[in-house]
Amino acid sequence: MDPARHAAWDAYLAVRVGLLPDLELLPVQDRRVAAKLAGLAVRLRQQAPLWPAYGDRLVVVASRARELQRAGDRTSLTALLRVMLLWLFRISRGAARLPGSQH
Q1: pLDDT tens-digit profile of 74-99?
Q2: 19 contacts 77 by C-beta, under 8 angstroms
Q3: Interatomic CA distance for residues 23 and 42, integer angstroms
Q4: Structure confidence by residue, pLDDT tens digits, 33-57
Q5: Cβ distance 94 to 7 under 8 Å?
Q6: Less packed terminus of the chain by CB within 10 Å, N or C?
């Protein structure tokens, strides 16, 4: 698997297996949720250059997710993370074009 797809799959698993289950069980403002979001944000910022069509957007989404977590907005945070999952899955499958993009 190429590095971009592998990195996307690892990030996907971090959200799907690590972060979302904690978000269902813990208070949204729990420090463990905050720590996982912070780690995800760092990971996405480092790997963004691997994903030309999605990298910058994922960094922005991670930043917004951290804001929603600090505000205690579980519903919006969960919805945003599900969008992130969709993008990361598409990248990991090699289908990394944004809707309507030509590249």
Answers
A1: 999 999 999 999 999 999 998 765 45
A2: no
A3: 19
A4: 999 999 999 999 999 999 998 999 9
A5: no
A6: C
